[in-house]
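Practice problem 4.
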């Protein structure tokens, strides 16, 4: 597995964890999803995959 693939998998895992903490019937706006995605990107960029 390449480093790029590891980052992609880590990012998806972190993004899903952000949404899994809410009840199943919670709906999200596109803006909320984009913000969460950007937050995950920043976390990986600044802190790495650890």
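Answer key:
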């Amino acid at each position: 597995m390449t480093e790029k693939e590891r980052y992609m998998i880590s990012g998806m895992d972190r993004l899903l964890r952000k949404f899994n903490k809410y009840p199943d019937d919670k709906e999200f706006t596109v803006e909320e999803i984009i913000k969460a995605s950007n937050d995950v990107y920043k976390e990986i960029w600044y802190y790495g995959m650890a």
